[in-house]
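pasting for ref. prot 1 ->
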Amino acid sequence: MPKELPGFYFDAEKNRYFPSSSKPDGKARSSKPHLQEVRATNHQHTPKPLSLPKSLSPTCHRSPSVWHAIQRSRLAKHQRERIAATHQVMSAQLAATRAYQAIPVPVYPGQTLTAFAAGAYEGKVWSLAGDSYGVIHAFDPSPISDFLSVPEHTFQHSWTRAYQLDSHISSICSSDSRWVATSFSSSILIHDLPSNRTVGLSPSPHLACDIWTSNLRNRSLVLGVRQHALLMQDLESLRDARRLETQSDVFALHQEESLVYTGSRNGSIRRFDTRTRAPGLTLLSEEFTKSSNSITYLNVIKDWQLLVSTIRGTIEIFDVRYLQGSRPLLALLGHVNSYQPKLPHAITPSQSHFFAAGLDGRIRGWSLLTGEPLSCSSTSPFSIMEIPGHQTHAVDTPTSLFAVMFEELITSLEITQVRHELCLFATSGSGLHRFILGRP
């Protein structure tokens, strides 16, 4: 007679102990469902069986890896093992995202959306969308309690044309209770939410010409412009604005406490100390400049890792403490880019997962702990959902984040945390697309 062990049961047929949580209820099911059952399940948008082949179900909500990760988390003896198992569960949940809405934004005929930002302030969520005509569309603030359940038809008709700049909106960024929008022809719009006050700035061509990107941290604003970056430590004043010389157009920016990182068209990465007037320190030597591999995204994660995305489609993580001639610690494979400097990226607030829009109209995601993709790349053709560039009506249907292909270029990605849920927004054509991450 086998002994009873707490948390385990004895299988007489296999003559082994197994965790009690894995004990089958009633008659065991076949581990390989028939293809007809799989297609019927897909048609009804219900959770797929555990043992579906990856080629048919690239984003299974309850895949074997999730089950094993949960078991490892329960049985782990060391903190490191529990952290890894918990991260794997989180990755599987993100890969299972199917909550999707497509919301048309009332742009003028022939115009497209070029930038988007959203945030929460005083119990409400605000949203801004900029277009190629220079219009900034504002969505009526929604209570946080209602934002995740707003019907698509309500979302569609709640936009107003709030502001007009002189050329297409090149970026929208936010920090705390402020947001900043820029046009490519160097107009800047600053809005303070507590006072509901808006300030417009027009830097001289010497300071800023062709604004590619922007980054806001508290009251410090950095603009990526032609041949240099422009640092404004006092957000609303150009009086003490400082040029950060890069000798090349700046496509990517990141700010830390007193540091500014710039990524340029010529592939150079520089780090400027805002406490001094010293020139920027060149990082990674000739890692990207020797092949003119333009930098399209920069971020410092976990305080010591530099995340770099390039125009050639490479996404790599370097050790920020040893950047001279260092090799990447991790490479995120599968990103598609070959010439587009404005393909957007987004990172989760916990800095654990990363998303990038590809030149092929697909969104891909990775774990920043392991480098593994959140969805297998070999998605079957019948599971791909093609999204037209110009949305004429709202759509609210369960669709996998990684099985969506946009007809037009994806122009912005934004991750916004609303209470305990994460929303990923994407703009393409005239449509705004929202995925609630982790919700099946």
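and prot 2 ->
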Amino acid sequence: MAKTAVVTSPECGAQFPPPDALPLDGFSRWHDLRSFVPFSRETLRKREMEGRFPRRHRLSQRCAAWPNREIHRWFADPVNYRVEDK
């Protein structure tokens, strides 16, 4: 029997099931990606620096997120993915 994790919202205490998929548009933070990425946060950071994982965007001084379109591009071909220079 599969267990389903429950996500609790700190503002109101409401419980929501975890998302089954990332939306195609928008941005995702690490806690959104954690269940979809098969390696640790540090490995992700190293691959990001090597250009083998999408680069995060700084939303504020302490908040960074990855563009979902790039994450889906990485999902399609993680072995051959390379960041496009802009």
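The two ends are 47 Å apart (CA to CA).
The chain has a mean pLDDT of 83.
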